[in-house]
């Protein structure tokens, strides 16, 4: 196969994820070249994400590179994908997943108390965390993971919320911080949180096969179920939505979801997955 041009955002996290994918491709004998794209979401660091276009903003400009042929594959955080991909494009592989949980991050010697200010702009995180810790106050925060940690260090917030996956993949020195992971039952993660998704043109059959080949099979199954629920609900991150699938030994799986504060759970065999997703959606989804 010819050398692959790999499109990605230029943030440290995006590049760390892209390096994971490129290493797997090189191991499979394929050469890669990285092409970094600055998206609207990267340029506008002022406005709340939900105001400048929600989930799609980090993805659309990268998809354009695939459609125009400037790039062959694109690496995404699967949780940032809009429910509808650009026509002709598919997520063909999910090479790896990290810890799916969210975490509260505080400076080492600090405690959370009534009125503590938590930096997050995510309606899902606000809804879920205030359910378990109702006395906290939330204030919007923007910027990538390292910028957010600097804002915490400078005392702009008492705590911030980060995905464990981001902390792990950046391999940051967290010496001066305490990390308090929130279980997936306490705070249902965003659908596909912690999963790397690799996108390509649907018609590139050989490439689709290659990306399947470098996928982690369990991550791929988790991706399919969470993505199925997510796309069937047609929601984006401007509404509080959490989706999480746990694959248990013995072929059973647990589906957890939350929409606008309403929660539901299903447990069943994975082969009944379609029906489980449908009934979960039925219970949660406000069709009005
Ligand atoms: N919304 C930004 C974003 N997209 C993916 C991650 C982390 C990695 C992941 O969840 O896959 C983050 C940072 C965060 O939410 O803390």
Topology:
Layout: E1 4-9, H1 12-27, E2 32-37, H2 40-43, H3 60-68, E3 73-77, E4 89-93, E5 102-107, E6 117-119, H4 123-132, E7 137-139, H5 145-153, E8 159-163, H6 164-170, E9 177-182, E10 196-201, H7 205-213, H8 217-233, E11 241-247, E12 252-259, E13 262-269, H9 273-284
Parallel strand pairs: 1-2, 1-3, 6-7, 6-8
Antiparallel strand pairs: 3-10, 4-10, 5-8, 5-9, 11-12, 12-13
Helix pairs in contact: 8-9
The chain binds the ligand NCc1[nH]cc(CCC(=O)O)c1CC(=O)O.
Structure description:
With 288 residues, the protein is α/β, with parallel strands linked by helices. Among the domains are: 4-95 and 195-215, Periplasmic binding protein-like II (D-Maltodextrin-Binding Protein, domain 2, 3-Layer(aba) Sandwich); 102-181, Periplasmic binding protein-like II (D-Maltodextrin-Binding Protein, domain 2, 3-Layer(aba) Sandwich). Helices cover 32% and strands 26% of the residues. It contains 9 helices and 13 strands. The protein has helices at 12-27, 40-43, 60-68, 123-132, 145-153, 164-170, 205-213, 217-233, 273-284, and strands spanning 4-9, 32-37, 73-77, 89-93, 102-107, 117-119, 137-139, 159-163, 177-182, 196-201, 241-247, 252-259, 262-269. The strands form 3 sheets. Strands 2-1-3-10-4 form a 5-stranded mixed beta sheet, with helices on both faces. Helix 1 links the parallel strand 1 (4-9) and strand 2 (32-37). Helix 8 (217-233) packs parallel to helix 9. The longest helix is centred in the C-terminal third of the chain and has 17 residues, at 217-233. The protein starts with a strand and ends with a helix. Residues 77, 79-80, 145, 162-163, 165-166, 193-194 line the site of ligand PBG. The site of ligand PBG has 10 residues, from strand 8 and helix 6.
């Amino acid at each position: 196969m010819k050398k692959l041009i790999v499109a990605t955002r230029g943030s440290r996290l995006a590049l760390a994820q892209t390096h994971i994918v490129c290493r797997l491709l090189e191991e499979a004998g394929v050469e890669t070249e990285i092409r970094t794209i600055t998206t609207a979401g990267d340029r506008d660091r002022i406005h709340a994400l939900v105001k400048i276009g929600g989930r799609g903003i980090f993805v659309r400009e990268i998809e354009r590179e695939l459609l125009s042929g400037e790039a062959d594959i694109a690496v995404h955080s699967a949780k940032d994908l809009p429910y509808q991909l650009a026509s002709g494009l598919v997520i063909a592989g999910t090479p790896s997943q990290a810890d799916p949980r969210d975490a509260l991050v505080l400076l080492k010697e600090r405690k959370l108390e009534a009125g503590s200010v938590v930096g997050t702009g995510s309606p899902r995180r606000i809804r879920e965390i205030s359910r378990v810790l109702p006395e906290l106050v939330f204030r919007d925060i923007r910027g990538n993971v390292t910028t957010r940690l600097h804002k915490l260090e400078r005392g702009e917030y008492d705590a911030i919320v980060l995905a464990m996956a981001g902390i792990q993949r950046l391999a940051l020195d967290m010496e001066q911080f305490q990390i308090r992971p929130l279980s997936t039952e306490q705070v249902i993660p965003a659908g596909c949180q912690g999963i790397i998704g690799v996108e390509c043109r649907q018609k590139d059959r050989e490439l689709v096969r290659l990306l399947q080949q470098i996928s982690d099979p369990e991550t791929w199954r988790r991706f399919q179920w969470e993505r199925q629920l997510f796309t069937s609900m047609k929601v984006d991150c401007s509404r509080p939505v959490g989706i999480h699938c746990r694959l248990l030994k013995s072929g059973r799986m647990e589906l957890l979801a939350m929409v606008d504060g309403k929660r539901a759970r299903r447990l069943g065999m994975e082969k009944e997955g379609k029906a489980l997703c449908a009934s979960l959606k039925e219970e949660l989804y406000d069709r009005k």
